[in-house]
Write a structure and sequence with these properties.
Largest sheet: 5 strands, antiparallel
Strand order of the largest sheet: 1-5-4-3-2
Strand content: 25-35%
Structural class: alpha+beta
Distance between the termini: 35 Å
Shape: elongated
Number of helices: 6
């Protein structure tokens, strides 16, 4: 999320119904000097780093625990919860949320159209128009096994005409044989394939 005009930071949320915040403070007391203050009826903890690690801010709201290196984002998280609004009330996200796998170890949701606000940290040309026309949401289900991570998901397109998906109409499912020679210690594996290129190209000319 954004933390001011020219900076960005991350806030992390997790369910922690049995978390003892005071015990957490004690366990981290060697790395941080803690203080706290009330904010909107909740207690916000501030940890001043005693080393080179960033300062730490966190709070607990019911069964939800959240922390960040930005005090502003933790305060904003409390206000957001107080407002009783949710992403699930947004039709676009709610539609994508329903595709998640309940058996996946991790459900990851990324709002691509807002991610360009974070690109300034890594790309000097983050204002390039190509970064301004991204899709909306993508959802990934992650499962970890031994030395690999399996991902599957759905991307929510901005094309309201649905012409993009029509490019693959009547196209047979592709067979993935390329992974067979990939060594077991490969860092990543990305594979794009179209089994029936003639049908794909015919659809491409008709819609584009």
């Amino acid at each position: 999320d954004e933390d001011g005009v020219n900076a960005s930071a991350f806030i992390f949320y997790t369910f922690a119904h049995d978390l003892q915040v005071n015990s957490l403070v004690r366990n981290l007391s060697r790395q941080y000097r803690f203080s706290s203050y009330p904010y909107n009826g909740k207690t916000l903890f501030m940890g001043k780093s005693t080393g080179k690690t960033p300062d730490l801010y966190f709070s607990q709201y019911g069964d939800l625990f959240f922390f960040s290196s930005s005090k502003l984002l933790v305060e904003q998280g409390i206000r957001q919860l107080d407002s009783n609004t949710s992403l699930l009330k947004q039709p676009d996200f709610k539609f994508l949320y329903q595709t998640k796998s309940n058996s996946a170890q991790v459900n990851l949701f990324i709002q691509l159209k807002e991610s360009n606000t974070l690109l300034r940290d890594w790309f000097y040309n983050y204002k390039n128009p190509c970064w301004q026309n991204l899709a909306n949401w993508t959802a990934l289900d992650l499962n970890f096994e031994k030395a690999q991570c399996d991902m599957s998901g759905v991307l929510q397109l901005k094309d309201s005409t649905l012409q993009f998906l029509n490019l693959f109409s009547r196209a047979p499912a592709r067979a993935d044989y390329a992974k067979q020679p990939i060594p077991a210690n490969a860092a990543a594996y990305v594979f794009y394939a179209i089994k029936d290129y003639a049908s794909y190209y015919g659809n491409l000319k008709r819609h584009w």
